Amino acid sequence: MSAMTRERAYQREVAAVVEAASTTSLGDRLAWARLHRRWDRLRAAPPAAPDLGLETAALAETMAVCGDGLAWMARDGDRDIRAALIVRLAQTRRQLDRLLAGSTCAP
Questions:
Q1: What domain count does the chain have?
Q2: Residue 9: Cβ within 10 Å count
Q3: Is residue 106 in some structural domain?
Q4: What range does the domain containing 8 cover?
Q5: How confident is the model over 16-40, as pLDDT tens digits?
Q6: 3-state secondary structure 30-84
Q7: 86: closest CA among 26, 1, 10?
């Protein structure tokens, strides 16, 4: 699998988690726990993109914050936490898209 293909697959997986989180009901703790585990796997294996300094660091920080938010939702999140989490997840998706758009990995 080429680097470009892996990057696109990673982007699709992040997008799927963002979409799932935006449609998961507030009280579905099992679904939030599954999303948290899925997010942790994504966080553990980021795409091979060049280190762009602050952009790369910002993405790592936002992914960590989203992981914490998903864990919180799995325990006892409320509407405010969910709303903030959805915003952060969308932000993470945009950061990832920008980072990979600047990637010079050849297919």
A1: 1
A2: 12
A3: no
A4: 3-101
A5: 999 999 999 999 999 999 999 999 9
A6: HHHHHHHHHHHHHHHCCCCCCCCCHHHHHHHHHHHHHHHHHHHHHHHCCHHHHHH
A7: 26
